[in-house]
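Extended Data, panel c. Modelled sequence:
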Amino acid sequence: MTFRARHLLGIPQLAPDEIVAVLDLAERYVDLNRRTDKRADALAGLTQINLFFEPSTRTQASFELAGKRLGADVMTMGIAQSSLRKGETLIDTAMTLNAMHPDLLVVRHPASGAVHLLASKVACAVINAGDGRHEHPTQALLDALTIRRAKGRLTRLTVAICGDIAHSRVARSNIRLLGLMENRIRLIGPPTLVPPGAAEWGCEVFADMAEGLRGADVVMMLRLQRERMEGGLIPSEREYFHRYGLDAAKLRHAREDAIIMHPGPMNRGVEIDGLLADDLRRSVIQDQVEMGVAVRMAVMDLLARNLRAERGLRAAGGVLV
């Protein structure tokens, strides 16, 4: 498989063939995860540290499960247990972790660019599990796998990304990945929640749901990120749902076989009607959760292969063994 990365920090570092390599390997892990015995040994003997400076349920649990199923020794550090609460700098934390000789470091941080800084200070492979408003590459990859399995392809689709674009690292990573794979991308949301330069990202921008959803193959709803907002960006949640929440009437403007996605956690009755979220004929939201474990297994497997090859090269004095 073609996968050259040492770290996974963002989607722009990946070429289309590397994206396909991740998805193809993830397909194999989907099959493994549906068996009674879900164990593999791709990370046997390796140590995985999950370092979460932001609270998470799905992403943290997904990475923990992925690492354990691949045979890694897995340790998770949350911010409540972190020395940063005692005044330690991010670089000091990186140096402390580096002295423990981990092999894989999974990092979520509220500051954009923090994961890149950590990656420059440690000797292990680093995976960005979300940094500020910047990127969330494994979410985009699991969304890509979900789309490919539901639609039979990952190219030449019309994908509508709807809601809080401005604060969404999920949107940014998806825009980059779906653009690389030659899809038509539409961004839909109130002007206060769409970045001013969004039209320059190679996307079409709409303030009207009916217009933006017309003919869409994929409808990707985004969480309204209250924790990243300053006041006054929306008049009220009720008004937001009326104009930008997905309901049956708005969905009728999309293609009849359009799928519904949401990265979670969902605010039902704000971003999406609960009945649509649970409609197994259209919604692939639970599939996204399942694909998340498989994609993260694939990413860590591929990074571990490169890490072992790099260490083998150094041990051989420049000759790959």
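The first strand starts at residue 47 and ends at 52. This feature is highlighted in the accompanying rendering.
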